[in-house]
Amino acid sequence: MQRELTYEAVLSYPGHPSAEDVYRVISSRYSTISKATVYRNLNALYEEGKIGKVPPMIGYEAHYDHRTDHHCHAICTRCGKVVDVDVQYDSAMFTNAVSMEEGFMLDSHDLIFEGTCMECRNKEKEDGTEGI
Amino acid sequence: MQRELTYEAVLSYPGHPSAEDVYRVISSRYSTISKATVYRNLNALYEEGKIGKVPPMIGYEAHYDHRTDHHCHAICTRCGKVVDVDVQYDSAMFTNAVSMEEGFMLDSHDLIFEGTCMECRNKEKEDGTEGI
DNA sequence: TACCTTATTGATAATAGATATCAATATGAA
DNA sequence: TTCATATTGATATCTATTATCAATAAGGTA
User: Fold this and answer.
1) Is A57 on the interface with B (CB under 8 A)?
2) A107 touching B, CB under 8 A?
């Protein structure tokens, strides 16, 4: 049941919720849910292929995604917010051109962009730290 | 002084050492070094641009790199080992083609490959788990 | 050299995010 | 209803890392 709530929360979340985000949403109307359950169910849903997971970078929380197709993300290095990126390329380009350690079997790749989102840029301007 | 030891350890390490790896190397001949010092100095060296850092994925330790130029890495999803990847592409291709949230300022990108290294593939074969 | 200021260090506590444990409860088929 | 299985909440634990802070080292200046 809480699994279903978790799934719905991800689907309806505008953007890329972290486990904490999902927990907050659910517990606002189902206050007895445990954080462990949210983590557990997010993992399960991801393993089942029902939700996506943003390639998770150290120093930021893991973020989930209602999209399950392979696409790219940009992460704001200031606040950790994740946004979708639309970029067309032929992924065969990589898998063919890749050379690396003998015997390494390639499964997938992730293309991740880093930068600063508008909110954080505005915040920095206000703080007068932009010229440093 | 320990800073210098840290630097040398990264330079001479075959591959992409984690903080733990570096600590192990140094403490083998300088047993009083503190782990905090290693973490601190790895960060400092990275900030100074003297060593590189592999785009760090959650669930694995951070890995450092004697190379400081922008290049790609593959990570073994079984054991966390990092290997260099040689792949030619025009990065302008991305920065130009990228469209995302209004106002997001792009700084950099990372192209990360995931797969299984030969060691881990062999280990799985031995365990008889390869056919699952 | 003695003095002072700043930087670095080691030991340790603390943190965040996530996972493991486990008894209690729910579910669902027979 | 009964039994087996799955899910849950509460909590302890984990791992990698950072923060704290007193002690020490380094380095410039007089």
Assistant:
1) yes
2) yes
Q: B109–A113: do the CB atoms touch at under 8 Å?
A: yes
Distance between CA atoms of residues A107 and A96, nearest Å: 13
Q: Does nucleic acid strand D have an atom less than 7 angstroms from the CB of A59? A: yes
Residue A47 CB-density burial (10 A; 0-12 exposed, 13-18 middle, 19+ buried): exposed
Q: Which pLDDT score, from 0 to 100, does residue A131 have?
A: 43
**Which residue ranges form the domains of chain A, and what is each CATH number?**
1-68 (1.10.10.10), 70-132 (3.30.1490.190)
Please state, in angstroms and rounded to a whole number, the distance separating the CA atoms of residues B84 and B37. Answer: 27
CA of A32: nearest nucleotide by C1' is D9
The reply to whether the CB atom of residue B97 sits less than 7 A from any atom in nucleic acid chain D is no
pLDDT in tens, chain A (132 residues): 889 999 999 999 999 999 999 999 999 989 899 999 999 999 999 999 999 999 877 778 899 999 999 999 999 988 888 999 888 888 888 877 777 777 888 888 999 999 998 888 887 777 654 443
